[in-house]
Specification:
Length: about 400
């Protein structure tokens, strides 16, 4: 009985001390005016700009939504069409004698960094309409790109949305800089997305993101504190401070991991390594997409988008970056996918080579904006114009050759 009494006394003293310490801490932080309130949570019914949750892709454009973009690039109003894509309004009824080209891609294709009329897709549409063999056809280059998407999400976009518009040609615009890691759970940190995994030699869907708690989404951007009730974090300066310290540490870890995870696509993967597996899954997804497109009677091709380091006009800086990675060149993913296309009967057009030639010739960066990383990040207006024009010329030549057969 005495032992139980002593235990109760000790427990009471411990709890009282803890309550006292927390109270003093809360008062001290308030006196010092230290406050780091958490951002709104997804489950607090806050509208997330122009995006919405999607049961097949994780997130998607909000149909008919508008927002104003003030980040990297040109400040402008963003408008989503009724299908939830950043594109002109398109009828699901294909025009008579029309030619429809569907672009699947990520932020390079959605291109919120420039005005819609300055995107490479809009320029392709305009220029292809001037192609002599297409002058009597209504050409539509339809933008199904969504920022942050990997190949798995682009395949789901094809399955659940693209076929409604009966495209004649589907173009997958592949950006090795993040599409590879997007496709493999061990390399990706944002898990609000579907994955495909091999089982018994077949790629099958992993849709476990549907049951994901929001704080489990991104290991770099969420803290264990985020699993607590939102009101408790809103009202506790101590919890806010713990969260801030945890998030700051995770962001430092992200910077540390950057070169290993975000730049490894330049290198040939080693056997029994995560990068070899993500290449295997990615190439399997591309083949799966090709097969589904061909089954629908449409044509399919792959475009590889450039990374900014590949096409720097400053050759000394570019070569210094290459040497820092200890690689013979910066075109490993482009070469690999070109050879893969030859093996799998998939036309592949590598953009990095022509863009680099143009950058060297003009001395101008085709990536980057004044309000972001100089010569880095996404294509700028000049980059989109160049890509739109060379892709229109390439496709015009293909359609001309096809007509002559």
């Amino acid at each position: 009985m005495k032992k139980l009494k002593n235990l109760a006394i000790n427990l009471g003293l411990t709890v009282s001390t803890l309550i006292f310490a927390v109270t003093v801490g809360e008062i001290g932080l308030r006196i010092a005016k230290i406050e780091t309130p958490p951002p709104p949570r997804e489950d607090s019914n806050q509208e997330l700009l122009y995006t919405a949750k999607d049961p097949n892709r994780g997130w998607a454009g909000n149909p008919n939504a508008t927002a104003f973009w003030q980040g990297e690039g040109i400040p402008s109003e963003l408008k989503m069409n009724s299908g939830g894509f950043r594109d002109y309004e398109r009828s699901k009824t294909k025009p008579e004698n029309g030619l429809r080209i569907a672009l699947l891609g990520d932020s390079f294709t959605e291109a919120i960094h420039v005005k819609l009329e300055d995107t490479y897709g809009a320029i392709m549409e305009q220029r292809l309409q001037q192609c002599p063999v297409l002058k009597d056809r209504k050409v539509e280059v339809m933008n199904f790109g969504v920022q942050g998407y990997g190949t798995a999400q682009e395949l789901m976009t094809l399955r659940h949305h693209v076929w409604d518009y009966a495209p004649d040609l589907v173009i997958l615009v592949f950006y090795a800089g993040n599409d590879l890691r997007n496709n493999y759970r061990a390399l990706e940190h944002d898990h609000l997305r579907p994955y495909f995994v091999y089982k018994d030699g077949q790629l099958v869907e992993d849709m476990s993101f549907r049951d994901l708690n929001f704080w489990e989404r991104d290991r770099y951007n969420f803290s264990i504190v985020d699993s607590l009730p939102f009101w408790s974090v809103q009202n506790s300066r101590i919890l806010q401070l713990i969260r801030k310290v945890d998030i700051d540490a995770k962001r430092r870890q992200f910077e540390k991991d950057y070169s290993e995870i975000n730049l490894a696509f330049y290198k040939e993967p080693q056997p029994d390594y995560d990068w070899e597996e993500t290449w295997k899954v990615t190439e399997g997804l591309i083949k799966l997409m090709r097969d589904e497109v061909y089954d629908q009677g449409a044509d399919f091709m792959l475009i590889t988008a450039s990374d900014s380091y590949q096409v720097l006009p400053d050759i000394q800086k570019r070569d210094g970056f290459r040497k820092s990675l200890n690689v013979p060149n910066l075109f490993y993913p482009d070469i690999r996918l070109k050879n893969f296309g030859k093996e799998e009967n998939i036309p592949v057009y590598n953009l990095a080579g022509p863009i680099w030639d143009e950058a060297k010739k003009t001395g101008k960066c085709l990536h980057g904006f004044d309000n972001a990383v100089p010569c880095g990040g996404h294509w700028n207006i000049g980059g989109h114009k160049f890509v739109g024009e060379i892709m229109a010329n390439y496709l015009c030549e293909r359609y001309t050759a096809k007509l002559r057969k």
